[in-house]
Amino acid sequence: DSGVTQTPKHLITATGQRVTLRCSPRSGDLSVYWYQQSLDQGLQFLIQYYNGEERAKGNILERFSAQQFPDLHSELNLSSLELGDSALYFCASSVAATRTGNTIYFGEGSWLTVV
Amino acid sequence: EDQVTQSPEALRLQEGESSSLNCSYTVSGLRGLFWYRQDPGKGPEFLFTLYSAGEEKEKERLKATLTKKESFLHITAPKPEDSATYLCAVTSNFGNEKLTFGTGTRLTIIP
Fold first, then answer.
1. Assign residue B91 a region: left if phi > 0, alpha if psi is -120 to 50, beta otherwise?
2. Which of the listed residues A29, A104, A112, B97 has the most CB atoms within 10 Å of its CB?
3. Phi, psi (5° rounding) for residue B52?
4. Are B93 and B110 in contact (CB under 8 A)?
5. A103 to chain B: nearest residue by CA?
6. pLDDT tens per residue, chain A (115 residues)?
7. Which of A45, A17, A108, A32 is nearest to A72 (CA)?
8. CA nearest B52 in A: which residue?
């Protein structure tokens, strides 16, 4: 158990709908990351928050948005869903940036199926 | 842009047959190189972080090494429970702490 908690574990929704994925980081971790993993593309970085502020953006679609709340949990909002958005969405967390690196721990993921 | 290439894509070994997985990387200032293990439908499980060329780390039957251009994950006398996808990732000194992943090596250990 990495200590990163994600909900829901599975969800099925229709095209055009909106869903929210939730993540609680490990105790003491200030950074939260969101990654998308699809069969044909591997793990792709979406976005990072650090202590409530957006820190970095990756290949995140405009239909997707995220935020980190004062209690450090984070939510990833996916709207106007398309079939191609079906994937495993992972949340990860870490303490903070350090000079020598930063271990990032992953949750178990949220399986999203768009039908 | 940071790039990570892993080889082979898939590897089948007999139980007890040692081998190595390769991770080649291109990064503008390596901050850290990470190895993760991922079981089907699960989140990546952290194994090792390596920071500088020449560094080695071991855990049970796994040993990770690092050079200036690549990393190897050596697996000694593997068991069926070592079957998984092994992912390599890097972070850069420039910018944020995001991980750039390779596509992984799917390892199958046959009893």
1. beta
2. A104
3. -145, 155
4. no
5. B49
6. 889 999 999 999 999 999 999 999 999 899 999 999 997 778 999 999 999 999 889 989 999 999 999 999 999 999 999 999 999 999 999 886 554 557 889 999 999 999 9
7. A32
8. A100
